[in-house]
Amino acid sequence: MRDLLTRSLPPEVRERLAADTSTLITAGLAARSGGEIVEARGFKIESRANDDGTFHVSGYATTWDTWYNVAGGAPYGWSESIHAGAADKSLAEQDDVRFLLNHEGLPLARTKSGTMTLTADGMGLLPNCEALDLSNPRAAELRSCLARNDVDQMSFAFMVVRQEWNEDYTERLITELRLFDVSAVTYPANEATIIGMRSAAQPEPEIADRGMSLRFALALADQLG
C-alpha cells in the first residue's frame, strides 16, 4: 500500500502535526482507499428511504471556496478551502470512485457501473446514488444505522495534485485533487458539508452561483433533509 500523504502534505505540516500515518487515519484525516493512503474529510449524513424500499443517497461531498479547519486549525493544524474546479480533471478522466463503508470493503455503488454519479456544479461536488439495494446486507446494515442515528457521518477520500500554502503553512488552497471514494464512516474528520439521503422523487436544487457561504450551504441542506 502506497502512502500518498507524502505528496499531499508538506514535510513542515507533517512535522508540526507530530503524527504518523496510522494516527492520521485514526483521526479521520487520512484513509486507506484502493491500495493507497490518501487524505479524507468528513461530513454529515441525513437519511430518507425511497418508496420502493431502496434509498437514495445524494448531497454535497464538499463545497467550493468555503474555509474550514483541519486538525483544529492553527497552530498545529490549518485552515483549508477547495477551489471551484478542483475536481474537474478527475471527473473528466472518469476516475473510478466507489461508495463504501469506512473506506473499505465491497462497494455499495460505483461510478464505473453507473450506480453512482459524481458531478461538480457551482456549489460543490455532488455524489448521487439513486437506489441502494437493501438486499445487500451491508446496505441494509447502513440503512439501519442511519435510521437509528448510530451513523451520521460521511467522508470522501482524495489525493491533492495541486495546492497553495501561505508562508507559515496555516492556510491551504486545494486547486486540483484526484478522487478515490465516498464513504459512510464511524469516525469522520470534520463537518464542512452535508450529504442528504432522500426519496428519488424529490428534485435536486438548481444552484448556479459559486462562492456560497458554508453557513448557507448547511442551512440549504437542512431544508432539503
Description:
This protein is of the alpha+beta class and about 220 residues long. The protein has one domain. The chain contains six helices and 14 strands. It has helices at about 5-10, 10-15, 20-25, 90, 135-145, 215-225; strands spanning about 1-5, 30-35, 35-45, 55-60, 60-65, 70, 80, 100, 105-110, 115-120, 125-130, 155-165, 170-185, 195.
Set out the fold topology.
Layout: E1 2-3, H1 5-8, H2 11-17, H3 21-26, E2 30-33, E3 36-46, E4 55-59, E5 62-63, E6 68-70, E7 78-82, H4 88-92, E8 98-101, E9 104-110, E10 117-120, E11 124-132, H5 137-147, E12 153-165, E13 171-185, E14 194-197, H6 214-224
Parallel strand pairs: 1-3, 3-14, 7-13, 8-13
Antiparallel strand pairs: 2-3, 3-12, 4-11, 4-14, 5-11, 6-7, 8-9, 10-11, 12-13
Order of helices and strands: EHHHEEEEEEHEEEEHEEEH
Strand content: 35-45%
Indicate the structural class.
Answer: alpha+beta
Low-confidence stretches: 190-220
Question: How many domains comprise the coordinates?
Answer: 1
